[in-house]
Give the backbone structure.
Amino acid sequence: MLRCLRPLAAFIGLAACVSFGAGGVQSLALSGGAITAKGPEGYCINVSESRPLTGFAALVRCPSPTQNPDATAVTGLITIQVGGRNSATVTGSEDELARLLGSRAGATLLAGNGDPNTVIRDSVAIEGDVVFVHFTDTATSVVDGLEQEEWRAFLDLRGRLITVGVRGFATTPLSRTDGLQLLSRAVNSLRNANNLDTVIETDG
């Protein structure tokens, strides 16, 4: 399992390049069309900062009122990282992954700088075939302007390991409930965009 989760390092490195502009694009083909990235209502792809060939997409609130009709909606940064072909490892191994994420090795994977001592895990939970983790990374943020708390989900789609992350902004941090709900919405939107309509429900 640990070997198969090494794409997380790529996720962290790519996330460091993200800025917060968006151009109104609401879906993007990743990894040569293997996966379609699509966020929840009101969220658009940051095309300039996404890396579709390497399976990475960054999503922020849409700039247009017609694409983002709810001005009170939760604001955050959503990231999607797609693993390589046949990298799927979550389904059927949810308990194993949850144990890994609760360990020191898991903290190393979650840490933006690779130092497990900077990671404080709040919770690791399994909902169906998705593993959720909520944690704080006290190291200097890999992206300027983001809060230290993060909500992350691991799941399999079309034979690939998918990592979905959510962070709020330092000036407008997310509550625990809002962060989890935004992550759940992002996971469901991604599954629906890829013809998998199983709805994940999480407790706030």
Q: What stands out?
A: Helices lie at 7-15, 94-101, 104-110, 176-193. The two ends are 28 Å apart (CA to CA). The chain has one domain: 3-193. Residues 3-193 form a domain with the Protein Transport Mog1p; Chain A fold (CATH 3.40.1000).
